[in-house]
Amino acid sequence: MLRLIWFLLGFLIGSWIGRPLKSSPSQAPASDASRAERLQSVQAPAVTTFAPVAGEPDDLTAIKGIGPAFVEKLKALGITTYADLAQQNPDLLAERFGGRPTAERIRRERWIEQAQAKREGQ
Predict the structure, then answer these.
(1) Coil, helix or strand at residue 58
(2) Which residues are CB-neighbours of 67 under 8 A, at least 6 positions away?
(3) What is the torsional sign of CA 5, 9, 15, 16?
């Protein structure tokens, strides 16, 4: 019975802590249009485009940190080869993913650098 009480108490506290904060109208969340404007205003570095060698996708699961679920998301974004991934900016890629994985994770696991190394090793 005591465990049930502690469970309920923890659940209520967790629900209270995890609730969204109320914001004033001046701090309204950014709309999709303003988010798109911010993404367009960010200048991506100039990148050379590489054509796939045989037109077939590369095995992106060979990159540490990328599993089958992320490969499917990358395919949906049009990223199917090491060259495609090597061209990406971690911040913009995370934004296109919807925040999962984060840009920090992409940098920490060195997805871009691993893709560049795999592309050069082909």
Answers:
(1) coil
(2) 61
(3) positive
In terms of Cβ atoms closer than 10 Å to its own Cβ (0-12, 13-18, 19+), residue 9 is exposed
| H-helix or E-strand spanning residue 111 | helix 111-121
Residue range 39-80, pLDDT digits in tens: 666 655 554 444 444 568 888 899 999 999 999 999 998 999
Question: Global pTM?
Answer: 0.52
What is the dotted CATH code of the domain comprising 59-122? 1.10.150
All structural domains of the chain with their residue ranges: 59-122
Examine residue 25 and say whether the peptide bond preceding it is cis (omega within 30 degrees of 0).
no
